[in-house]
Design brief:
A hairpin with a 2-residue loop joins β1 and β2. Helix content is about 45%, strand content about 10%. A two-stranded antiparallel sheet has the order 1-2. By secondary structure, it is an alpha+beta fold. The longest helix has 13 residues. It has one domain. It contains two helices and two strands.
């Protein structure tokens, strides 16, 4: 499902409270722009594919 940055930060904080959530989000955003899927605990992050069809 689509997730905004505020919700993504909350999920990161819940899954990995010992990490820097904002730094982790920056890393995730950089990697998904490369086409990667990032798994963090029970959550998966990937870029939305706008080139369907």
């Amino acid at each position: 499902m689509k997730t905004d940055q505020k919700d993504a930060l909350r999920m990161i904080e819940e899954e990995m409270p010992e990490t820097d959530a904002e730094g982790t989000l920056k890393y995730i955003l950089a990697e998904i722009q490369k086409g990667k899927t990032i798994t963090l605990g029970e959550c998966r992050f990937k870029a939305e594919n706008k080139n369907l069809g």
